[in-house]
Request: fold
Amino acid sequence: MIQSASCKLITCILPNDGTDRILLRTLRTDMQIIRASSLQVRGLAMLAGKKFKYGEIPENVMVRMVSVVVEAEQADQVFDYIYEKANIGHRGAGVLTMSAGVTASPYSLPEGVPDEE
Reply:
C-alpha cells in the first residue's frame, strides 16, 4: 500500500528569465525539496502598467509556472522562502499562491543523481 501525506501546492508565475531554474536549484539544495516542476506557459500581464483600450486584449508573453508540493507542516516556511528567493515583492516579479488539501505520495531520488546544470 502506498502511503500518502497531507500536502499543499505552492504555485508561482515567474518571468521567463531563468528565475525558475535558480529557484528549483535552491529549493533542492537549501530545503531538500524534490517535488517541484517548471513549465513554460503563456500569460497576460494585465497589471503591467500599460493602458489598453476598451475591448483590447493585452499581448501575451511567455512565463514560467513553478509548482511545488510540500507537506502541510512546512508549507508556510516554504511559501515565505519562495517569496524571498524569487523576489515576488518587487514589481513585475510574479505571483505566488498556495492551495490546501492536496494528497501526494512521498518519494526520494536514488543516490548519485546529479543536479542539472
Q: What stands out?
A: The first strand starts at residue 5 and ends at 15. The beta strands are 5-15, 36-44, 60-71, 95-104. The chain has one domain: 5-46+59-102. The mean pLDDT is 84.
